[in-house]
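Recall that a protein's primary structure is simply its ordered list of amino acids. Everything else, from secondary elements to tertiary packing, is in principle encoded there. The following example makes that idea concrete.
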Amino acid sequence: MAREIVQPDGGDTAPDPSREVEFALMLSRVIDSVENNPEFLRATVYELARHKLKEEFTSESFGDVRNLSKSLETAIAGVEAFSKKKRWRVAVGSKSRSGEGADISPSIEPTCRVRSRVGFSCV
């Protein structure tokens, strides 16, 4: 994955320090969230993929971008289905080994969305 770090251009206007602190805090919160929450990590990666798709294919026709978006959403749904199946197998296996009955009820999972330009929220 290519990493881009934008360096100050040395222009006349200095960056707003309060915005810098706000961005640093937001980035820190997101990083902390994804370290301990695989669902949030996946949601963050999906949002990044959606954003990059729109950014990279702005010169394509609307129909082409729509088809690419549908393909991406299908791929995301497949990854989520696989992930749920994998988590279910791990949960059932660990309960079976511990001697408890397997609870096969689906878990309620957070839905993460971009809340604003400066953050994410999970419900």
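Residues 62-98 form the longest helix (37 residues). The helical segments are 17-36, 38-56, 62-98.
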